Amino acid sequence: MASIDDIAQMKTATLTVMATRGQDQELVAQAASRYAPAQDFDDQRARVIPCFGWHPWFSHQIIDDVTSEIRNNTTISKEEHYQNVLTPAIKDETLLHALPEPFPLSRLISETKARLQQYPNALVGEVGLDRSFRIPNAWFPHEIENRDQGLTPGSREGRSLSPHRVKLPHQKAILKAQLQLAGEMQRPVSVHSVQAHGAVFDLLQELWSGYERKGVSNRQRKRRPSVAKAHEDSDHEQSEDKKDSTTPTSHPFPPRICMHSYSGPPDALKQFLQRSNPADIYFSFSNVINFTNDSSAKVVEVIKTLPDDRILVESDLHCAGERMDDLMEAIVRQVCTIRGWDLEKGTRTLGDNWNRFVFG
């Protein structure tokens, strides 16, 4: 929050600011209201696009009172909840005591829906699945004393990691509820996926089952400026004879999905880009995540493989200002080099992609 004032001076025109946990949902709303009041939020020139969601790193803090954990109005204790959703079982009483009281999934969905209604162009995010993340250990006294008070509470903040992971079925239940809300509200979604791209796709496929698009011919694809446009026109042509029927605007799945800082292999792109998928899948890249380790060669291959109109860029940084601008410029230049675009074409293409992803 200490960097919010820097947004006004940034070169980056608009920031899609992600919420991840309970402590920052309202802070994201405040930042958006400061730079674009809710009543004017249909203006695409807003400096901040708010995104509301619960990240998989904090999914253990949610108690599923919607599907499986609480039945017939029977409540369970905080201790029982955490033993149910974490693996291995917690034996450290200090850690168990330090974990927050679980937050009901029904309340999370209700509050997120209210915020989406307040901001008509808000996204759902950051949500997703993560097989590798381990929850942090409880705070040590010296860590609390040295804590950076400028940071929003609730994150790891340098604490050592425990051996405990959030069970994937629980993560999927939290993600599914948020994806369904995005479908109901017809909002795009930012998805975090670490070692879970197959599980993410399987869940999406489950949600859009029965809504698959009819095939888009090669001739249609050549006549349209983008894959997304080809699908849009194909859908329109298929429904011309149903113009007078009442078609619901909501679906059980979001209309557009961004695989954020995508780290999957090139082969996995095929399933996400199938012509029959009724949601348009985009892939964003950041220097912070995608070009700082030995997987850079794989990322280059992915970027080369993707269609022009499905590539997005991001900073994946927690603070606004000059450093974020520098990271944005660096990833734009990186993508342009990989794709063989000059900067004018690259910035125009990436800007068009972002506008289409956010606004449809």
UniProtKB/TrEMBL annotation:
GO molecular function annotations of the record? hydrolase activity, acting on ester bonds
Basic and acidic residues composition bias: which ranges? 229-245
Ranges where the record places region Disordered:
145-165, 215-260
InterPro entries from the entry?
Metal_Hydrolase, Metallo-hydrolase/TatD-type, TatD-like
- SUPFAM superfamilies per the UniProt record, alphabetical: Metallo-dependent hydrolases
Listed Pfam families: TatD_DNase
Protein name as it appears in the record: Cut9 interacting protein Scn1
